[in-house]
Amino acid sequence: MTTPPRFEAPSLARPEPTGSADVPSTSDPVVAAGTTPSQQFTARSPRRRGGPLQRLKGLWRLWFFALVLVLWWVLSADSTSTFFPPLQNIVQRLWETWVVGEARSDLYSSLRHFAIGYTIAGVLGVAIGALLWKFQRVGHAVSPVLYFVYVIPTAALLPAIVAIMGIGSPMKITIVVLAAVWPTMLNTLDGMRGIDPIKLDTAKVLHMSPLTTVRSVVLPGAMPQIMAGLRHSLSIAVIMMVVSELIASTEGIGFFILEAQQRFAITTMWTGIIVLALVGSALTFLFIAVERVVLGWYIGARAVEQKG
Amino acid sequence: MNAVDTGWFRTLARLGVIAAVLAGWQLLSVAGVLDSSSFPSMTATMAELGRQLTDSDLWLAVWETVRGWGLGLLIGCSLAITIGTLLGLNRFAYLSVIPVIEFLKTVPVIAILPLAIVVWGATLEMKVFLVAFGVFWPLAIQTIYGVRAVDPVVRDTAAVLRLRGFRKFTTVTLPSAAPFIATGLRVAAAVGLILTIIAELVGGARGLGLSILTSVNAGPDRLPATYAFILLTGVTGVLVTTAFVALEQRLLHWHESQRNLAAKAA
Questions:
Q1: Is residue B142 less than 8 Å (CB to CB) from chain A?
Q2: Could you give the ipTM of this predicted complex?
Q3: What is the C-alpha to C-alpha distance for residues B212 and A226, in angstroms, rounded to an integer?
Q4: Same structural domain for residues B126 and B150?
Q5: Which residue of A11, A100, A245, A250 is most buried, as measured by CB atoms within 10 A?
Q6: How big is chain A by its Cα radius of gyration, in Å?
Q7: Is B48 found in the same domain as B3?
Q8: What pLDDT is attached to residue B262?
Q9: Does B251 touch chain A (CB under 8 A)?
Q10: What is the reported pLDDT for B3?
Q11: Domain residues for B219?
Q12: Cβ contacts (< 8 Å) between A260 and chain B: which residues?
């Protein structure tokens, strides 16, 4: 039986900007909003609750989305502008290059680097965050250094890392890890700090083993925020994957787009942009699906609380 | 509370860690663990940083970066707050537009960069567009949710008091949305800086990002300069974040989240 996390004081879980001053976490926009993930879910849950029939009813909301696409198609149909070719041509080229053509290998290469880098960043982020929470004094002492490295835009480190590691998979994975580790780490730390001390004391009184304490008190308490951190890490990892390919690479989606741009093959470039957009949102929606499974108990508890 | 937890000891520990990191860097360089052709020593980097600080080219680069970042942020945030507020106030508009915004938010901003580069080239406009585009979506969503997150009790009270129009907006809507917007702004500032640097690195617009790139391309002799520029980028980031956190605390001192912080700090 897992202990549900605290519901009563969402603001406690809020990342501390300064105050008792440690690494400020400007991680997930929604979490950082002074809204815990809980509020994020209440803000969204109404339109996702209910059975399949009710979900179908909500489909009318997509009319605007469809309108935007139709407008793009119609308005660009006779476009002679170099930069904005007709959508029809783009879709056609998309089919030729990405579905039947060989550009797919670029996609695989990008996704491989992303997957390895994101996994390492996630594991490292949770592990370091947990250690910083466990050894609070060490955490206090190293926080200025950590903060400084966190604030440096990782893209600025890229040329230096290329100089050290050359262009290849290790360099790209390093970049992804370096950029994506922070949100997960800071959110893990914040989430664990927000656990009600009484629960930890209770675990101690009950002589729970450290493992049991972690499993039934620490993880459930911090999970909503860890997931929020992982989600933010995801979007950063995608961006850095592309940036590493834009600056130094001979393969990948970023390279494909850049190469098309330099050949002034604007339609081809557009297909790359669209593929990248689709990959980014597919990964995000995949993550949301996983999150709804992992945090199912939490979202359910919130929904009950809302009604009550 | 024991001696280890007193304020001055903590400060001392922090300074100690910073000194240890710098000393460790120098030690590794001197011992030859870090190859000097790819990672200059700490003293060489610091000396170069000191020299660069007196160079007007450096300040020009900093100015270009800050200008691109500031303009992009200003445009993107004004649009996001205005449009977000309007959409948040109307249920039909909100439900219709939110799928589009949620989708566009998941699109990596960087996808649009090559397009901006072919349209504008390595210019300030390109940078400003990228920053404005990048900060718009997340901040618009923050604003929409903020406007919609009015406490039901407050909303009902406003209805009972027959508050309408502008008066309701300034006394009910704005205060409840303000914390969301403030945090959105803080995040936007950080994201905007990252995008500015990326636009300079990839697009070649003038600024700190381009300085880093040219110093790397100039060969191993200029490597200390590269690291000096990277450190400076970090300092810029610290200044930007600190400024926005301070602003948030000042403007929102009345809000629950900030009051909790104050209570905790005390």
A1: yes
A2: 0.77
A3: 34
A4: yes
A5: A245
A6: 23
A7: no
A8: 58
A9: no
A10: 60
A11: 38-265
A12: 114
